[in-house]
Amino acid sequence: MKIKAYAAEAIGAELKPFEYELGELKDEDVEIKVEYCGICHSDLSMLNNEWGMTQYPFVPGHEIIGTICAIGKKVKTLSIGQRVGLGWFSSSCMTCDCCMSGDHNLCSNAEGTIVGRYGGFAEKVRSHFAWAIPLPESLKAESAGPLFCGGITVFNPIVQLNIKPTDKVGIIGIGGLGHMALSFLKAWGCEVTAFSSNPSKSAEALEMGANHFVNSCNVEDLNKLKNSFDCIVSTANADLDWTVYISLLKAKGKLHFVGVAPNPVSTHVFPLISGQKSISGSPLGSPATTAKMLDFAVRHHIEPTIEIFPLSEVNQAIAKLKSGKAHYRIVLKND
Hints:
Largest sheet: 7 strands, mixed
Distance between the termini: 19 Å
CATH superfamily of the largest domain: Medium-chain alcohol dehydrogenases, catalytic domain
Helix content: 10-25%
Number of domains: 2
Strand content: 25-35%
Number of strands: 17
Radius of gyration: 20 Å
CATH architecture of the largest domain: Alpha-Beta Complex
Structural class: alpha/beta
Shape: globular
């Protein structure tokens, strides 16, 4: 069976129509008919082979919403016609210590939806059934896709770091990831501060859940916040003065990365030792944590701010994301 998709033939190339064979469906896999697929900055990184693991032709897309159209022989928990979401991971080994402990997202043999396989800028996509998460009926299909990458990326640290409703949390970068982090943390009960180099985002950040907005280019304003935060989460794909942000942490505070800084993180060790502070990071979340995030989003009426493009205009959508003008996530509708 031929699947129609959009693929890049080389690093940074324009996406063009592409067809491929899916082959026989594995016993524990499901086939998803793609309705919507978000565009993530990770799609751009993979398109440009920034992480050295892209295979061409490359079909991006890992924020997928669709309906199950085929199931493997051993799949018992999903049914034909059921609407599901699929994110960065499409499979994990299910037998290692991480998988058996519920940390499937840390499996060393986990497979990415767009790593070594074709992603969601296509008619159909496949995954192991455990990673196809049922979508609650009250979540809008058109806007839910970004929850399966950007959303779970910023929700997972709340769980993993045991962030409390009484905590003061800072978010660096108010973009595709950061704007969802503000909404989740506000609903969690935290006092939230948004750090951005773009002052024009102030009003919107406050509307999305921030209690405070700080221009991260204003050194004086940053210095006023020393020893203020229990946790600061960086969603930025940028190199910043991390020593400054570590100084903003309370004793035992954490600087946590979910955005990929281009270069090695450099800081003095003494402030970490003297304040028992730490630097950490996390990837997305397990299927169970993703399901909890969806329930939390339903309960608190949280959804990403999106723009919709038809899939046939994928290159225009990518150009808008590259320009930094996306507001705040772009979703492709399969046409």
